[in-house]
Amino acid sequence: MAARTLNEIAQDLKALIEQAAICREVRIAAITSYEQVHKLIPSLARLPAAVVCVGAGEYDATASARDVNPALLLVAPFEATVEAKSLAIWTLLEQAAALFIPPSGPRSALNINDVVYIPTGFRPIATGSQCSAYLLELKAQQTTK
After folding, report:
1. If you average pLDDT over every residue of the chain, what do you get?
2. Burial code of 70-83, b = ≥16 C-beta within 10 A, e = fewer?
3. What percent of the chain has pLDDT over 70?
4. Has residue 111 been placed in a domain?
5. CATH code: domain of residue 98
6. H/E element, 125
């Protein structure tokens, strides 16, 4: 069995987010710098939005397994005078994270096309004043045996 490519992993995650219907726009982007994030965010036309990106990865000693670190950049509108809009990013973050924790409990990981996805963390991303953003970090584990 061949490992899923980075493009296939990104497409799988995009399909998951689209099926969950938690965002109005879902994109894939090969983001490698904060400058690219700041260029991308204003181009998101329909918020809330998710952008699937892939970070680092590593192989085991025999290259028969690898861990890839994809992430979801989640962006929601921000309006300081409306509490629901100022907190919308937290709701979006919780909804996205819940997709990776199946109802049978946190110890049963989500498996899509023989890749196991585990949420590993989240952090805020600095944006302009019109929106808020968080990065939901994942680990995608797969074997090629």
Report:
1. 88
2. bbbbbbbebeeeee
3. 90
4. yes
5. 3.30.70.1700
6. strand 115-125
Rounded distance between C-alpha atoms, residue 61 and residue 16, angstroms:
31
Tell me whether residue 124 is in a domain.
yes
1 is a domain residue: no
Residue 74 has which token pair? 């989640």
φ, ψ of residue 142 to 5 degrees: the values are: -145, 150
pTM across the whole model:
0.89
Tokens standing for 110? 């989500």
Q: How many domains does the chain have?
A: 1
- Strands 49-59 and 65-77, sheet pairing: antiparallel
Beta carbons within 10 angstroms of residue 132's beta carbon: 25
What distance in Å separates the CA atoms of residue 38 and residue 107, rounded to the nearest whole number?
A: 35
Sign for the pseudo-dihedral over CA of 8, 10, 13, 18: negative
Domain extent for 138: 6-143
Tell me the residue type at 50: A
